[in-house]
Amino acid sequence: MSSREQILAAVKKNQPEATGLPSLKGLAGEMPATLEAYRKVLESLGGSLFEITDKAQVPALLAQHYPHLERVVFADDKQEWAHEDPHQLENVDMAVVTGQWGVAENGAIWLTENDIAVRVLPFICQHLAIIIPRERILATMHDAYEKIGAPQTGFGVFIAGPSKTADIEQSLVLGAHGAKSLAVFVLG
Amino acid sequence: MNRPTTDHATLADKFNENEPRVNWHDETLWWVRAKRDRQAWSIPEWELLRETASQIKLNVLGNLHDYLTQFEQQALQNGAVVHWAADAAEHNRIVTDILQRHGVKRMVKSKSMLTEECHLNPHLEANGIDVIDTDLGERIVQLAKEPPSHIVLPCIHKKKEEIGELFHEHLGTPAGNADPQFLTAAARLHLRKEFLQSKAAITGVNFAVAETGEMVVCTNEGNADMGAHLADVHIACMGIEKIIPERKHLGVFLRLLARSATGQPITTYSSHFRKPAPGKELHIVIVDNGRSRQLGREDFRNSLKCIRCGACMNTCPVYRRSGGHSYHTAVAGPIGSILAPNLDMKDYADLPFASTLCGSCSNVCPVKIDIHQQLYKWRQVLVQEGHTSAAKTAGMKVMNAVLSKPGNFKKAGKMGRWVLRAFPGMVNNRFNPWYKQREMPAPPAQSFSEWYAQQQSTKK
């Protein structure tokens, strides 16, 4: 008997009587889906939020708040870098991507590989900026999964704030392995 | 007392030799527990979320066979390669084979308690493959040649000065620099090199969705993603209990996990790996290693609901004051103490006794595992199976003889009070475990029964 058959047979023999799945109704409660709620959580995670009315405002705002950026890539452009070896993205100072859904309760933004062009982009860049339309901010994770639905791509990720660690004596340090900072541009 | 040198009490004694360190450890973990409370209280539906998560996991246990085959089928359709490992040795063999087939000599790994449980790192090293742990805390304990002492905070037992010294020795940082910001930046540079050179990456799995065949991996640092996306081969190792039924259930578990673990609303990254990127390989190793046996133990199967948040450790008065290494197993603390005896009853017979049964673990558990009840039940199993020390068995027999017969109880009480008065040195010595770290009480002149009888007679 292969290990697969052996494991599955043991599981079948030992598993308890099947019970039903609980309803997920009522879990979301009265959590707010407002920009202010989102901003508060994002800032508590070390991210910063900018309100814009046009995507074209992003480069000027980046130049103002991050004066030393050398290599900036916009995922929407999908230029030649999107077809190069992903290791070449190591020297990207700032990556700008557009997110699908924001979650007010925890600051997370949902992105799929269609939004980021190359899977490693939002992790390998030194700094990350995500653009999100204001009406795409939802209250909770339950709302987010309802909107996201079935997977359309091979990879998707919720990103909430910059990369961080508190492994040394519980001292919070931003910029562990991923982006050292996160700027969220709320459009509209 | 006759006990093996590696048992919890002996190792806890060692940890307690450094009192300021113990106090720091205790207070820091309690601070994490308090952060968890603030997050929990900010969600009015928190208790409903816990109950829902517990019921979803119960549904998983009752349908695990079908969910596992559904997950496998979906994962295969997604283009992943699925492997099944009956035990730790088979898991290690499978991973080694994949790496050797690709000629990998050095590779990165993000946090996976399963690979700790299986002792994968020493196995790979014996086969000439260097493993670089990339979670900062895990890298620190790896450099110190120690196992993690906490499943979420691997080097919580270390002070920053010790970490500064380790980094000075291994990464060439200036001697005496113990600034967490500086040390983290040094680790970032050191590990970026490893990420960029690595052809293979191992990650753990937080949740495996039967409906979609995808796996969710949660990190704050981004190390799982840096490793998996830059490597040609991604190996994801998961226990059979990581399954959840549907994608929408992730909403429940992702709301609970980080809030329970560290008091954050969610981890920075919750990555959903479904298909390998074009031209790359995704391997999923599904591991049993005793889990199907635990599934058959009615009293203990709920331990398989665990989502590895570590909340039970942060709240446990024993864990906080004895340190993770005192549990001598990959998963320490209350949850580890109900999982480990299933792996080896003899080796881990001490762990269910490393508890006050206060129940705080069960109160914070996001999937409502009855941890303290299971600790109590394991004690009974271990005694029945003869895995407790002879001294404890003899002591219990004496207690039974005294407590079950009122006459014996009265005589023993009288004798005890007399001994305490006449020969205090007989109990106030280091051979009496009750004397450790506490003074014996002054003996009362009479017992409660005697006092009560006296009161009744004076009333009349």
From TrEMBL, chain A:
Q: Which residues form the signal peptide?
A: none
Q: Which Gene3D superfamilies match?
A: NagB/RpiA/CoA transferase-like
Question: What is a single Pfam family found in this protein's UniProt entry?
Answer: LUD_dom
Q: Which InterPro entries match?
A: FTHF_cligase-like_sf, LUD_dom, NagB/RpiA_transferase-like
Q: Taking every annotated instance into account, which residue ranges of this chain make up the domain LUD?
A: 59-186
Domain of life according to the entry = Bacteria
Q: What is this protein's name?
A: LUD domain-containing protein
From TrEMBL, chain B:
Give the GO biological process terms. Answer: lactate metabolic process
Domain 4Fe-4S ferredoxin-type residues, every copy: 296-326
Keywords for this protein: 4Fe-4S, Electron transport, Iron, Iron-sulfur, Metal-binding, Repeat, Transport
Write down the Pfam families for this protein, in alphabetical order. Fer4_8 (PF13183), LUD_dom (PF02589), LutB_C (PF11870)
User: In its keyword annotation, does this UniProt entry include Transport?
Assistant: yes
Q: Which GO terms describe its molecular function?
A: 4 iron, 4 sulfur cluster binding; metal ion binding
According to the lineage, what is the superkingdom? Bacteria
- PANTHER family, A to Z: LACTATE UTILIZATION PROTEIN B
Q: What is this protein called?
A: Lactate utilization protein
Q: Which organism is it from?
A: Chitinophaga fulva
